[in-house]
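Predict fold of ABC transporter substrate-binding protein; 383 aa.
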Amino acid sequence: MKKHLMVLSILAIIVSGGLLCFGCATETTKTSTLSVDVVYPFSEDYSQSFKNGIELAAREINDQGGILNQAIEVNYNDDGNNTNTAVEVATRIAENPGFPIVIGHRSTDDVLKVGSIYHQNNKLLFAPIIASSKLNLAQNPGAYLCAPSDDAMASELVGSMAAQGISRIAVVHSAGNTYGKDFIQKVEEHANSMGIEIVDAVSYLPNLDYFRYYVKKWDSMGAQAIVSACVGNDITALYEYLEKTGNTRPVFASYDIEVQAYTIPQSMKNLIQVTSYFNNTATAGAEAAFIQDYQQAYGLTPDLPAAQAYMTMHLAADAANQAQSLETEAIKKVLAENSFETVYGSLSFDKRLISGIPVFQKIYLNDQLVPRDNMTGGGNSGE
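Predicted 3D structure, encoded as tokens:
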């Protein structure tokens, strides 16, 4: 009887052990997925290239093992390029578990508004499109600028004007727009240091008849060039007005003209120089490799938003993988102490501003913006 009980006990142990092992095998083959939140005006037509850049980077990250050995999936969130909607979206996704870095938004005002929401929920915000150096201020903790700052781009723009012998300029920006005001302020600072005089500053685009008054004033003051930091519909209006008033001055524009397609009169295009940083005609290096991969994936040449989306997604993954953690403080430490290989080369953060992206001027060639041959090499600083 004892022998029979012993056999039954042994069988019970074997069966229970087998069940335990079966459970262990199930756990080891199970794969988890990490959700990454991306916020942009995805309902707008101009957002497609940005989305393509995110998707391409996500596929590459997964092919390389994911983030901390977890495959990633992208959670696309549409903020409509509207500050109220941006706040609603940020409030909703800030509490999402999983990946602690959010990628977005498109507008400077939106990023400055929602940064504190992510910070309060122990998340970081990587801003791929805006250029505001205000992100380094104490009241904007947790938000990282993943593009050259307004200061870096203004430095390049003014240096390029000086190299072309321009000493008197008029500046135009959109009324009430934070990015435009800040960019023009940086232009003024660099212009003063290089002896370039700003003869007029305009933040209001009236009707065409009144705009003629501006042009006559610029003529009388000897303005040799116009600097534009207009955004949105003001970009289209400005160039229409300049064409209709017979403008022949060069126009130095901020990079916002590259973020989406704007209707610009053909006669104006040969006068425009755009401060930019993505070399869409690169034939060697990381930029060229990205261009080739993007063309193979989508049959199109990537633009600046595509490159920024691609770079920022990879940057977020690299930061977490180097930290070997999804803890915010561990990732912040890695961001502060390391450089990262990107589509633009080796980059690092100066506080929370990216540094190391070369800034240069682009001109229109066959309706495409391409880098000027004689780059000045300025504008590399983060702030």
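The radius of gyration is 26 Å.
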